[in-house]
Amino acid sequence: MPANLPPQYYKAEEEFKNAKTFPEKIAALEAMMAIMPHHKGTDKLRAELNRKMSQLKMKAEAGAKGKRASLFSVEKQGAAQVLLIGLPNAGKSSILAHLTAARPLIADYPYTTTQPEVGMMPYEDIQIQIVDLPPMEGDVRKLAFFNLLRTTDALILVADASGEPDVDVKLVIEELAAGKVYSPLAKGDDPPVGSVLKKMLIVLNKCDVGDASAAQQRVRAVVSEAIRTIATSALHGIGLEDLRQELYRVADIIRVYTKVPGKKPDLRAPYVLPMGSTVMDLARAIHRDFAEGLRFARIWGSGRFDGQSVQRDHVLADRDVIELHI
User: Fold this and answer.
1) How many whole angstroms separate alpha carbon 169 and alpha carbon 165?
2) Which of 53, 96, 187, 310 is the most exposed, having the fewest neighbouring CB atoms within 10 Å of its CB?
3) Cβ count near 35 (within 10 Å)
4) 94: exposed, middle or buried (Cβ count in 10 Å: 0-12, 13-18, 19+)
5) For the chain, what is the domain count?
6) Which pLDDT does position 138 carry in this prediction?
7) Which residue from 309, 316, 281 is spatially nearest to 295, judged by alpha carbons?
8) Is residue 1 part of a domain?
9) CATH of the domain at 303
């Protein structure tokens, strides 16, 4: 059976052949595997690409065992992980300190953050992991930094509202693109082959000393409308509660609660799923046996009425309560 590969596959393959670094090769391979159609004609090719991917990752990890690489390895915890990125003195560390119990070094001189600082932000009944990264100036091309950016759930780009936030934002997004981590700068932008598209929120900090409205207008002129902006002052606590809400939104997750037939729902520890998840996705998250034996579910929340019977492909909403029947 012929593979019938689309033209985009051959473009990604050409990028793979021309790639000079491990991250570039891995990104191109990921693109090839994502573009490749799923049928019997591509089974051998997919197996070959998987083999190449495993070899590349082993070589990349072997080359990244130095001290610098280990600094940029952060295990995901909580309901989601978001990274604070930006240029020096934008106020990322102050934001981390206000939203979490972390106590990073905060000073009025640049480059105080030399390694990732991690904190957990309480949000209602879940915890979101926030990681403050060192300033974005070339490190994006280093393997460990690159992998962390590609695998996180969302990016929070912090810019100084009192300076030139549009210039800073444009520079950081271009640095991300150099590492095949993509967020659109303007309408109509297409991600380069092999890029990972990341959710992003732009935080215009220091709005107490800058014109927040003017800063937002300047940034809006250089980024896509798909990227939301919010003005804050970490120094004076302005906008930080709104920022909590925006961090949850940009993480693109939902909370789902379960109940046993005839009993009240367990509202203490929700299952956290990606936005767009279905009843079947919830069943898989609970246990494989639930997914295999699932017949239908009852829903309280996004259904037309409480206790409505829904099928396995029903899309769940935040704070739905689900009763699974197997």
Assistant:
1) 6
2) 187
3) 17
4) buried
5) 3
6) 55
7) 309
8) no
9) 3.10.20.30
Contact (CB, 8 A) for 155 and 83: yes
281: containing domain: 254-325
Give me the pLDDT at residue 129, please. 95
Question: Domain end: 26, 43, 63, which one?
Answer: 63
CA distance 27 to 193: 8
19 plus 83 within the same structural domain: no
From the list 272, 299, 296, 300, the residue with the least C-alpha distance to 286 is 272
Residue 3 structure tokens: 């593979």
Tell me the pTM: 0.74
d(CA 284, CA 18): 40
CA distance 220 to 228: 9
Give tens-digit pLDDT for 129-179. Answer: 999 988 776 555 455 577 788 889 999 999 999 989 999 998 888 888 877
Query: Which stretches in the chain have pLDDT values below 70?
Result: 1-3, 60-72, 104-114, 137-144, 184, 186-193
Burial classification of residue 156, based on how many CB atoms lie within 10 Å of its CB (0-12 exposed, 13-18 middle, 19 or more buried): buried
Partner residues linked to 308 by β-bridges: 299
The dihedral sign for the CA sequence 191, 196, 202, 205: negative
Per-residue pLDDT at 68: 47
Q: In this structure, are 141 and 51 located in the same domain?
A: no
Q: Tell me the three state secondary structure of residue 146.
A: helix
Q: Residues 59, 107: contact at Cβ < 8 Å?
A: no
Max CA separation in the chain (angstroms): 65
| Six token digits for residue 154 | 């969302």
Q: Are residues 278 and 240 in the same domain?
A: no
Q: How far apart are CA 182 and CA 311, in angstroms?
A: 36
Retrieve residue 256's tokens: 């789902």
